[in-house]
Amino acid sequence: EVHLAESGGNLVQTGGSLRLSCVTSGTIYRTFAMGWFRQVPGQEREYIAFTDFNGGRRHYADSAKGRFTLSQGNAKNTLILQMNSLQPEDTAMYYCAGCDIGVCSVVPDVNYWGHGTQVTVSS
After folding, report:
1. What is the pLDDT of residues 88-119, one digit of tens each?
2. Which residues, 6 or more positions from 69, have their beta carbon under 8 angstroms from its beta carbon?
3. CA–CA distance, 83 with 49 (Å, rounded to integer)
């Protein structure tokens, strides 16, 4: 069983930045991929970005390109999402996702979810 725990969500002004973290625990195989999604109440969960186990492959949704960046934290089991130039439309609950099949870009790929961390961008 894999467990994911997000942190770092907060209230920020337009144009500000936030750094979200996701810590993974449990048994992980080399096919594992991790990603981030977000969801606004009443809307579908939206893909943001994912990386494979070694961090050699990173993919971003168009909405994230140029503003959001994935990286590995100090511990190999930590995934960071650096978000810059935040806009009110980025307001959502952000979820860390774990995928056993090596890709993590659509909801059906996801085997494990974190509980989410709230990001609110004020105008």
Report:
1. 999 999 999 999 999 999 999 999 999 999 99
2. 81, 82, 84
3. 11
